[in-house]
Fold these 4 entries.
Entry 1:
Amino acid sequence: TVIAKMPRQFFVGGNFKMYMSQIHPQRPLTNRALMANSPNGWLRNGTIKSTQDIIKNLNDAKLDPKTEVVIAPPAIYLLTAREALRQGIEVAAQNVFDKPNGAFTGEISAEQLKDSGVTWTLTGHSERRVILAEGDEFIARKTKAALDGGLGVILCIGETLEQREDNKTIEIVTKQLKAVAEQTKDWSKVVVAYEPV
């Protein structure tokens, strides 16, 4: 396994959800700015309007040129995001399939993403691990397919609350990483994102 020999460029990534959520007024100060632009304290996340708003804010922002910025909107807005974002801000899919092509209705291949100007994908997100029961080996295959297809991968790892309380964090994330390491030798286009479930 080859880990990048040079220090990696600072990386900031964010994925969007597909729901409308109410902002709790007693949350940290950061929510006040969100509430000021949200009718009745509701934050719309994962709509055309919210995607356009986020893109406008990013396009207008003075970003550190030493920081790689990547956003992961829902699949239906990938092209909208790619076409509207300024150069230097990249787009990630929230999912990629583990096969390069075939009759897999509803799935997106690395080749399709690359053809659309999408340069990154998430794999292993906690919601896909828990809700869709994606296992470590499947996530490893998806990661390999994405890398083989020329995409960068944001590999999500993390343990559940129960696993953390049982002091199994290291065991769980090591198992998740090991599955990918068995499939992937070059990690230069992999960013590991740790997030407890």
Entry 2:
Amino acid sequence: MPTELEDLVEFLHHGNSQIRQVAVETLLPYSKTEPAIFKANQLSPVKDLKLLVKDYAPIAKNVLTTLINISGDRDVLGLVANDNAFLESLLLRITNVKEPNANEIAMLLANMAKSDSIERLLTLKRDVPLGLSASKIAIDQLMDCYVKGAEGSWNPKADFDYLAYLFADLAKFPSGASYLTTIQPYDSVHPLSKLLPFTTPPSSLPRRLGAATVLKNVSFSVSSHPTLLSPPLSILPYILLPLASGADSYSESETDQMLEELQYLEPDKKREPNTSILVTHLETLLLLTTTRGERERLREAGCYFVVRELHLAVENEGVREGCDRLVQVLMRDEEGEEHTGQSKGAPVSALVTERDGGSERGMMVTQADSEDEDEQIVEIF
């Protein structure tokens, strides 16, 4: 480890703000290339960085970015995620309408969600931020930031997009899935319903990927399926629409069988371009075929037709494998059903041959296609 860097780290707690600023700016690139320097002296530099989040805005911005970049380390993650005072400091700032670094705080919270300790956001009570939320619960306040951020109606300097990844990780906990699918008393709304509008463009990639992952994670709970598939949530259109394109070809009888939201799409309606999101939605649909009643519901909604067109249009191995698995379930004969002799059980690759003649057709936020969205760490510079 270069001695110069060891010396420079010591200036993070210097009394002169100009020296602190130079130290933070100089060290920032090394948060990606030499992250070990921040673990010296039993993580003393990380402790300094946590305090500097409260510093002047330019210093705090670089500090937050540094913490984002090094929070993939388990020791660093534990130190920041388990600190109640530090968490409150972040919450105080991200809910402040004038906070200039709210997006960086959202990214850091998303990374902190890789620690199970962040589950406490679901029950953590704090002062109500006037004008933002009527709830004392931290997660409600963050959800309200997220919703208002999409319209720019809270903090004009923040869109809060990366909170989507925080919600996705919280949805992995049974308590998180329950929160998202339960009407909250402060606004009489299911929190999940606030995420559903962000499953399609023009919503940003973090919002679309986050919403898709939330839907997948809450669908692991079979007991929640009736709630998910029924009004007022009715999540099927929000899963199928990203899979569909206005250029897809359906017969009139197929169109009549499909959900109303998917009938006669505008010709310029584009399919979700991110293959990781497509795969995630296919996995969610597969989770929603656990019972015979659910399988029948997906069949009646024309799910197979959408998946067929997706398989024809997208040349991606993961997407096509996901289509195959789902069709194997949707097209198979149910127990007690007389075999029809038709194409139930045939893989999509065989079924679509009749249509195309057998021809083949953050979190590093810039690498969503190549990384597991459930384990991404946001890293920026």
Entry 3:
Amino acid sequence: MAMDPTQQKALNALESFILLSKSATSPRSAADLVNQATSAPNTYVFAELLRTPNISALKTASPEYTHFYTLLEIFAWGTWPDYS
């Protein structure tokens, strides 16, 4: 079964962020990457980015960075009430 063109476009947009996550070895660079991914046009799926090791490490990073992981979780799985 072929993927919907919109879904394919979203996955293609996310792919560059997944690749960049490999070099985001500090919490600051991982947080910046989350910010870029959630702000990028055509990026609507985020679960794959959540699963990358350097982004997952934000879960247990210092408090100034953990909210970036929470933000990405909301973008991946949440609803508007979760965000607001």
Entry 4:
Amino acid sequence: ILHIATASLAHAAPILSAAISAGFRESGVQSLKNLTDPNALPMVAVRSAGLGFESTIGVVCEGAPASDGLADGEPGKEQQGEVAMALVNEQYLEMLVEIANERFVANTERIRRFEELLFKASNRKDDEWEEKDARQDRKRKEGLRRKAELETNMKCRDRSLQMVDEDQNGMLGDLEGFT
């Protein structure tokens, strides 16, 4: 399991998306605090059990006589020790090694895809970290710029409406002469 601490839920989302898209289906976000808390530091857990591999290939028997009949290298003292006994033949063991190696290759490919997707997500401009004061200042400036644009648009609209009214009044005056 790879744990990645993030600054916010918004920062955790692209990491989680990259992990799931790369094939780490069991990944998730967790936090010791409520995730809706602005002070929460979400932790992305990247994990997958999909390529797990287990097989019993032998057992260890306790209490069996040691293979050389010696205890601590002293002649004449028999030792009760542990003996490993194979449950599968060498051909079956070779097949298991091949399967395990295929899974290592598949897992390496997943990791490569995750790195690629994570790199793409980290290069997005809209996800850049910004200090609270800097963000407030940027937002204030954006708001003032929009307000100025809106005021300019309103003045233009008012002037256009005034011109239309003048034109309509002028036309009505011209039409009065026809009656």
